[in-house]
Specification:
This protein is of the alpha+beta class. The chain has helices at about 5-15, 35-50, 55-60, 75-85, 105-120, 120-140, 140-155, 285-320, 345-375, 380-415, 425-435, 445-455, 460-480, 485-510, 515-520, 520-545, 550-570, 575-585; strands at about 65, 70, 155-160, 180, 185-195, 205-215, 225-230, 235, 240-245, 245-250, 265-270, 275-280.
Length: about 600
């Protein structure tokens, strides 16, 4: 079995490129060092390989079952989650005063990649819980944190987020779930939610739902949405669960992938009151929920990268071991077949996967490091700059890995040929699991609207200019290295092109908004490719500097990084040029298609 996430690569990204040890100079992380970071990754890899991976295929083949009253899963899920909780991973990034380990988010994000790569279905439960607890830490009252956040961080209770409704989908302004005020200050919720991951199970003592709803009389649209805690079992003032609350499963959704994570429709207040507590101020629910959603979006990108990475590692191991065919110049039919990695087209497919998954992993870890930099910033100006950079990168970090690491999974199947299409190998399962990531936590189209319609234009383009400046600085550094000068000049060109295209689009945003937003997805892909090229050039610069004094094994590793960078710049980055041409023309091909012509 190959390492699902190559440890040498994680060490390279975390310590050589992102310099995780530099965070330890800040008081927040001063109690940690490289040794403690390594021990966390060691534990994550061990638990993922020994507890999560062995039942991944079984869980996929035996998805959750609902008998009308309870949701049942195979017992291995609870056993694995027990090991995860005992390892302290749910609370790993939380402050010590909250019962956490106060580890950098960058490190915990890297650790999470192991669990997703091993078994995405089981990993979904604690990931959602940590995100829900983080939402409460930011917005709940002290009393609510004591009642709900504490047991979630201890792994005794799990958490969910309940946004979508059957009639509304991603259009949150159209949700209808009501919140009816009660004399005791709480609310009765009445309505229906759809696509709720972790919606019901018996893996924990309680499930804490975070529900978007409208208080009776609230304004229409997103301005009238509030956020509520609605537990599966009602909780008294001392934090003890009691009677069943009025939230029940209406039915399970049977999915293509991520089959092990319960996904359901929930009914609130249908036959008995669904008692909830308001989080934050009335009508500010969407702002509160976005605290959880933004973290979840980076997590989605990381999950996509991890699944793509696992597929790459399986296909690489297979290509090294599978004998088939002979070199094209060998005309002797009696000679022994060679491993398929010897064939140039197989190497092409492996290199394409490597360029996608290792570039995506770098981007997600870079964004995670920005979360840490924001937390330890010494002044407000520094904190705001990091926040803006993170804001403009988040839709890219969610969507680019989701699209292109899924493509990597497809290529991995191709490397195995017919075997890749069977359940004898995990490639088809990884592909099915990864297919969810371009959809949930905001589809690629929604991320594109967020990026072009809001993030690059906000504050007169301040965040976008900061991104361009950082990419240009890396390009300037590369131009001074003869071996990387070609890539440095290319990145300079594409950064300037991105700036030019964005100015042209911004100039027409007000007068032709339909054509403006109709080009959003092309814009996201263009800018995403440029950002990933930046991520690769950063890796190549470090590899170039370290290669000369490295051991033979490390020299091969660094050469692999430089070669993957070269591949991305020569094969992938030029795709951004064609997209830029369409964007400059404000192309209306899709928008102009008559509805009755389909």
């Amino acid at each position: 079995m190959p390492q699902l996430i190559e440890r040498r690569d994680l060490d390279f990204l975390l310590h050589e490129v992102l310099r995780l040890d530099a965070l330890c100079a800040a008081p927040r992380f001063a109690m940690h060092d490289r040794a403690s970071f390594d021990s966390v990754l060691d534990a994550a890899q061990k638990i993922a390989e020994e507890e999560f991976l062995p039942h991944a295929a079984k869980l996929d083949a035996n998805e959750p079952q609902f008998d009308g009253s309870r949701v049942a899963l195979i017992p291995e899920v609870k056993q694995a989650l027990g090991a995860y909780v005992d390892g302290g991973f749910i609370a790993a990034a939380f402050p010590i005063e909250d019962g956490g380990l106060q580890l950098p988010y960058t490190l915990t994000a890297a650790a999470m990649a192991y669990f997703t790569a091993a078994n995405a279905g089981t990993a979904g439960y604690p990931f959602l819980t940590a995100a829900a607890a983080n939402l409460q830490r930011a917005h709940a009252s002290d009393a609510q944190k004591a009642r709900y956040m504490k047991p979630m961080l201890e792994g005794r209770w799990f958490g969910t987020m309940c946004l979508s409704e059957p009639q509304a989908g991603s259009s949150l302004g159209d949700i209808r779930t009501r919140a009816i005020p009660q004399p005791d200050g709480r609310y009765h919720l009445v309505g229906n939610k759809m696509w709720i991951s972790g919606a019901d199970h018996e893996l924990a003592e309680n499930i804490v739902h975070h529900v978007l709803a409208r208080i009776d009389g609230a304004p229409a649209g997103v301005k009238g949405i509030s956020l509520f805690i609605v537990p599966k079992y009602r909780v008294d003032e001392d934090g003890k669960p009691g009677a069943r609350n009025g939230v029940h499963v209406a039915g399970l959704n049977h999915k293509m992938g991520y089959r092990g994570t319960v996904n359901a429709a929930l009914n609130f207040g249908e036959s008995e009151p669904a008692v909830g507590e308001l989080i934050g101020a009335p009508n500010q629910g969407l702002a509160c929920m976005f605290h959880m959603m933004n973290e979840a979006r980076i997590g989605v990108g990381m999950g996509a990268a991890a699944l793509g990475y696992a597929g790459y590692r399986y296909s690489l191991a297979y290509a090294r071991q599978r004998p088939q065919g002979r070199p094209i110049a060998n005309k002797d039919p009696a000679s022994k077949p060679v491993a398929i990695i010897e064939h140039s087209d197989v190497r092409r497919m492996l290199l394409q996967q490597k360029a996608y998954v290792e570039g995506a992993l770098m981007l997600c870890l870079y964004c995670a490091r920005l979360v840490d930099e924001q937390a330890i910033a010494e002044d407000e100006a520094q904190r705001e700059a990091v926040h803006q950079l993170l804001e403009v990168l988040t839709p890219i970090a969610k969507s680019w890995p989701s699209e292109f690491c899924l493509e990597a999974n497809k290529i991995a199947i191709q490397v195995l040929g017919g075997y890749g299409y069977t359940r004898d190998y995990p490639l088809e399962r990884l592909y099915r699991d990864n297919r969810l990531n371009p959809i949930h936590e905001g589809t690629t189209g929604i991320q594109a609207l967020d990026l072009l319609g809001r993030k690059v234009l906000m504050n007169q383009g301040a965040a976008f200019r900061l991104l361009l400046a950082r990419m240009t600085a890396t390009a300037d550094e590369a131009v001074r290295e003869p071996a990387l000068a070609e890539s440095g000049e290319a990145l300079r060109h594409y950064v300037a092109l991105a700036g030019e295209v964005t100015l042209q689009l911004a100039a027409v945003a007000a007068r032709d908004v339909e054509r403006f937003v109709a080009n959003a997805t092309a814009y996201l892909e263009m800018l995403g490719h440029i950002v990933i090229a930046w991520m690769w050039l950063r890796q190549a610069l470090v590899a170039q500097a370290a290669e000369g004094a490295a051991s033979p094994a490390d020299r091969a590793f660094y050469l692999g990084k430089r070669q993957a960078c070269r591949y991305f710049f020569r094969y992938e980055l030029p795709k951004a040029a064609r997209l830029a041409e369409l964007l400059k023309q404000l192309d209306d091909t899709c928008l102009a298609m008559p509805l009755d012509a389909f």
